[in-house]
Amino acid sequence: MNWKHIAITFAIAGPVGTGLVAISHAQQPEEELGVEHAECALFGPKGERFRIAPRNRNSQSALTAAVTSMLGTAKTKAAEAAPGAESDNLIDAFVFKAIREAGAIPAAKTNDYEFCRRVSLDLTGRVPAVERLTQFVQSGDPAKRAKYVEELLASPEWADKWTMYFGDHFENTENNTQIQIFAQGRNSYQSYLKKSLEANKKYDVMMREMIAATGDNAWEKGELNWFGLGFMSGGPAQDTNDLQAANTAEKFLGISHENCILCHDGRRHLDTMSLWGKTETRREAWELAAFFTKSSMERVRVNPDNATPYYLRVLNRPTVADYALNTTTGNRPARQPLGALRNVTPNYPFAADGGRPRAGEPYRDALGRMISADIQFARATVNYFWKQFFGKGIVDPPNQFDLDRLDPDNPPPEPWTIQPSNPYLLNALAKEFQKNQFDLKWLMRTIAASDAYQLQSRYEGEWNPAWENLFARKFVRRLWGEEVVDAIAQVSYMPVTYAVTGGFPTVNWAMQLPGTRGLGNATVAPEFRVAGIVTTYANASFLDSFLRGNRVEEERRSDTSVAQILNVMNDRFVHDRTRAVGAGTTASLARRLLNKYSAATNDNLLINEMFLTVLSRPASPDEDRQSQVMLRQGTRQQKVEDLLWALYNKADFLFNY
What we know:
The chain has 657 residues and is mainly α. The chain has helices at residues 30-33, 39-43, 59-68, 90-101, 112-124, 130-138, 144-153, 156-169, 182-198, 203-212, 224-228, 237-253, 258-261, 282-289, 363-373, 375-390, 423-435, 440-448, 481-492, 540-544, 562-570, 572-576, 589-596, 603-615, 621-631, 636-648, 651-654; strands spanning 20-23, 50-54, 295-301, 310-316, 323-324, 343-344, 477-478, 499-500, 522-523, 528-530, 533-535, 655-656. The protein has a domain at 201-373.
């Protein structure tokens, strides 16, 4: 293909929540733009400029409005019942009550095409296969949405998606600047997470297994790496105890401010940030860290003659003294005696009456037991997952819970306000999560089955940004990098193979990679070939442009950028997957469509199948008209390939809406 340099930007630029929303089209003559290749010149209003608008605190509303203004979705009939009117879903009872009380008007319920794509991406990270999509839409079964959710929850792709999520959440990486667990440790941890999900292990069990894990080899027992990755180098043992406590509070309880209190009392430091935190003392934080004092970690050399590589051994040491106040060095301020107090014993600080280990009970086992019984564990978990499905938490950010601002029946003193946007929903969902034994599939099923989740992202009429916290419409999200490359590989029928270091098995999907650094430290295997052309890997820079983070200093982010758009427009990984190549079962999408619809009289059928395959929806009348005009302007194969490239570059493809 004679790809032209495209002087056009079709992007939403600026970090979500902090920067600017910008969708810009260069106003240049068509011959300068290379109109036959530019998605926005083909499907967008010619010459229209989307001006930069200041980002405000209603960032999800602004992003959603910007993206939905570009969607070319054909008008399709949504469910006739008003959202929430006939639902017996726990979530709907609270969400739509709050919407009514605020005098807000919810968006309409989404149509079958949008629901099928949305829930497929959210639950599995994959777009629906065109055959399954068509079957779903054509079905008259009133329970088809619930049945499809069950189908997705039972799929191996579900475990892939949520293994990646937990890998991010628990910061599973081969080294985190403090310690190396090597590729083998990372792979072992990833395997533990995936096997736990495949077995539908309850989340409280996973939590207790990680917190209390003991064993001789973290390359073989993956859950040991939770403790290993909480090691703090260069200081006394209390530094590691403190880091373990901070990690536990944030990841399992949504309380990141504990990390501050481990350095100093909350007073004068958290006065304007946390009503709970400003009254907490460093001694109380030390009581949490004390749960980790009777544990030790050792490096075991694989080769006794070499310092590296090594694997980790984690053991309980019941004879070790409790948390000692005897340091003047290390990563945190000095820990010195408080009067006659020389050693701090463990006490759970997040319950009104505390909690101490039972006689003979290993400290970390005791901590896991107390966290399981704490409603805050359930609250934090459902809130973390709510953000994944709805775009923002009921408490947002989800790791900054203020424990003194959660009870709507006991509101905080002015000027403080209740923290959750819907406190009754948060508490009810947390209690039901407890009753259902911390079953993650139950939680996801409940969310995906709700009318609140199934609202449209488009909004007819005037949207009030003040309704954002009511969840009165579905907020769009930009796809993860892994979702983008997997979708391109899937719909093009041109797969890839990733070979990963450390004994990790070869995988065919980016969502199966064990990490986010490069290609999970991939070693480039021989390139996959179809009909004599090279179909390349999605390289590290392509994936990293979608801000998947490194799981240490950088978290995965959903910002959009020009770099992302330039990669989708110009990267060879994408271009190869527009080609009409191969035959039979190895034929690419473009080749299959050309074979199936060889005559120009079938252009409308070809266009519609391409849209269904790539965008999981039919072409709108205007898109069909413009596409047919383009297909008749040159060599048929060239134009089919160009049209496929254009669909990869549509907002519909890069966002879940």
